[in-house]
Amino acid sequence: LKRIMAVANQKGGVGKTTSAINVSAALAMAGEKVLFIDIDPQSNGTSGLGVKPKKSAKTLYDVMLYEKMFAEAIVPTELPNLFVLPAEADLFGLDIEMMGREGREFILKKCLKVLGESYNFIVIDCPPSLTLLTVNALTSADSVLVPVQCQYYALEGLSQLLKTIDMCVEGLNPHLAIEGFLLTMYEKDNELATHVVKEVRDHFKDKVFRSVIQRDPYLSEAPGFGKPVTMYQMRSVGAENYIELAQELLGRYSLL
Amino acid sequence: LKRIMAVANQKGGVGKTTSAINVSAALAMAGEKVLFIDIDPQSNGTSGLGVKPKKSAKTLYDVMLYEKMFAEAIVPTELPNLFVLPAEADLFGLDIEMMGREGREFILKKCLKVLGESYNFIVIDCPPSLTLLTVNALTSADSVLVPVQCQYYALEGLSQLLKTIDMCVEGLNPHLAIEGFLLTMYEKDNELATHVVKEVRDHFKDKVFRSVIQRDPYLSEAPGFGKPVTMYQMRSVGAENYIELAQELLGRYSLL
Ligand SMILES: Nc1ncnc2c1ncn2[C@@H]1O[C@H](COP(=O)(O)OP(=O)(O)OP(=O)(O)O)[C@@H](O)[C@H]1O
Ligand SMILES: Nc1ncnc2c1ncn2[C@@H]1O[C@H](COP(=O)(O)OP(=O)(O)OP(=O)(O)O)[C@@H](O)[C@H]1O
Ligand SMILES: [Mg+2]
Ligand SMILES: [Mg+2]
Fold first, then answer.
1. Taking CB atoms and an 8 Å limit, are A221 and B192 in contact across chains?
2. Averaged over B185-195, what is the pLDDT?
3. CB B153 less than 6 A from any atom of ligand 1
4. Among candidate residues A2, A251, A3, A252, the one with its CA nearest the CA of residue A124
5. What is the distance between the alpha carbons of residues A66 and A97, in angstroms, rounded to a whole number?
6. Do A14 and B13 count as a contact with CB atoms less than 8 A apart?
7. Residue A219: CA atoms inside 13 Å, Cβ hemisphere, count?
8. CA nearest A106: which of A58, A61, A38, A173?
9. CB of B192 closer than 8 Å to CB of A221
10. Considering only Cβ atoms within 10 Å of each terminal Cβ, which end of chain B, N or C, has fewer?
11. Burial per residue of B74-94, b for 16 or more beta-carbon CB atoms within 10 angstroms, e otherwise
């Protein structure tokens, strides 16, 4: 196992799911065995990868509540090296159901131990909030990949996210690092976007990925067909951008 | 008081804050006295209206925790008829702090009683989640204005939101209605956007506002200057769209 990455940012609609799906697919196409874990009750990642959990199937909700059935809940996708642990709407109630339960921040971490070395990368798609589900992702992960939309509000939210990550590092997961800030929905001729890129690069320096994800309609059409963009339209800008990002990650961890 | 509207959708980045700010401003410019309540811990609405709470100032956090100081926390904006109850980051911890407290779903509703008839419209901007803060907005409101981004994932999330609203109607607020579905970030030449508009209109019929908000860079630039779009660039498509929306709302409630 090379890396467990949480894709997180409490600001909504910044490209967390789009990035989690497409970087997972690009790593899988490069020959890495990847597990995509969807902890967002909206389950956009699950449907964006074409997985339709049957009523009887186990999902993350069962895993979190009963702390078993982890391996049973994992399903394959059309891509040979990419597997999914699906989410479902019952997760919305998990915070309340877990109130008062000992070690509720570490349930996902405990479950991941079961997997041992069967995957090279684990990518966890987080909801737009800082609730128990996101905390479980942050305690299980080696690092956090932070999508930053090239918009004004996205800049504002970063300091809050960093505070939350620091709290996690102090209290729950001393080993958690920032994998990097990923600029998303970039538009070349948009002044605001160019300004945000400059601000983020000036502020976070080499913690910002070289790869920038441009706004590309193919990225927003692909989930409607249950496919990552590399399987929907390989020759798109979006596909190229995420393949480049995967290469950047492999450059960091391929020797492990 | 004509209407208390919650602007809600647990899907992130669909235009909740942008709609809450700009419909509030357009109503205020039409002569209505409007209170904008920001219950999102990200406080995008607060900064988008140019309000920078001083460390000592009271915010929604104080109001929710101590159930007083409501009137003290309200601040004016550059627009004569528009006032703001600001949010701040401490709200992130409110769910935990309120656990087990009697009547925690109705705190905001109790506070709004204090206002009596001093406003014509109250607009509540919600975070992208279904936690205690959003529940407080749904129990206080007459209706919910639901922004729907013209994208695939935005369609998927609607059924979950309607379930949550139904739960609220049954248990906490029997008189809560849907004010309407507002299509946002529409792009005329985008096939997916046109498809989403058709799906939403076919499915929700006259519950969908006639006004459609188009994607307009001025809408995303205005918050950087702390102004609603009508004060940043009056002759923009975004400003026209939100003025039209305000007219549609006034048509429903101006006789009250
Ligand atoms: N680079 C891009 N170009 C065009 N559209 C994009 C791009 N990235 C994401 N989108 C679209 O923007 C919307 C928001 O993206 P996405 O759902 O991935 O964000 P998110 O951060 O996961 O949202 P949430 O906060 O609700 O979980 C989606 O409809 C998606 O299809
Ligand atoms: N019609 C539009 N045209 C262009 N940009 C828009 C439009 N509406 C919103 N935006 C931009 O899209 C981003 C998301 O919008 P906004 O923050 O209002 O959504 P939200 O639903 O409030 O997000 P959250 O779920 O985080 O609360 C913002 O950067 C905003 O400036
Ligand atoms: Mg998502
Ligand atoms: Mg918002």
1. yes
2. 96
3. yes
4. A3
5. 12
6. yes
7. 24
8. A173
9. yes
10. C
11. bbebebebbbbbbbbbebbeb
